Amino acid sequence: MDRFSIRFHGLGGQGLKSMIQEMLAPILLRSGFQVQAFPFFGGERRGAAVAGYLRCGRKKISTHSFISEPDMVVVFDHERVQLAKALEGLKPGGIVVINTSAPNQFMGLTHDWLVYTLNCRSISLGCGIGEPSDPFTVVNSAMAGGVARILESVFGAQFPDDLADAVLGEALPQKVSENQKAFLEGKRTVVRLMADGMPVWQLLIKSRNFPYLVQPDERCTACNLCYLFCPKRAIEVTAGGRYVIHEEKCNYCAICVAICPLDAIIMRLEESSKLDSAVMQGGGDHGR
Q1: Using an 8 Å Cβ cutoff, are 29 and 37 in contact?
Q2: Domain of 223: which CATH number?
Q3: 119 alpha carbon, distance to own chain's centre
Q4: Of 154, 183, 210, 231, whose CB has the highest number of CB atoms within 10 Å?
């Protein structure tokens, strides 16, 4: 692809400006791409609307204007940024990247665009960036990692981890290692929503094996790995620090089971012909 344009939407205090100018732009430039990146402020204060624009590609960029019809839209805070306005002008089949802890609510967008989600706030807090009480937690490093991973697919390129480490080391005055870790977590955990994908539980039901998860037990040390790596954001951390798996969101991928260092989460399978009959009566065309 010769040219690719991205429009970013966020709030003051979340690190949008530094992400596009001091993280993504240098990574792209050092990887041999032409880059143009600039922010736009509605008001220079925490919580005020902020937009950012980035063009990149293999050829020289001669356009100097806001991006009204982007190839990708990145949303830092879908609860306080008007999503419909953020998506204005996004090309059919374009890419949407959303920072969220509840990705399933955006399934409807997959009919028109490729939708990717990641939990940047959780990643940042888990890496020691920001405070849980801060509504405008800096999430730029995690989001930069997610966007970088998608751009690798768009251009068929690869941005080495040591390149990102070097760029962040030069750009950040403090908490360098924490931000480097957040970048890598964002890169590893960004996932695409698949509206037409068959959940694992449907396949298991067809073979008469019904999975269920045993909630984290007393062996849990609150290491946060299950929460960070759950692709469906089905794990909640309660105010009391307890980890709860919401099975209505879970697709039974068993990542949490595999990643738990102390086997505090267990998945079990049981024979369930009654369940199979109930599913068939409720709509037996699933999986045919």
Answers
A1: no
A2: 3.30.70.20
A3: 5
A4: 183
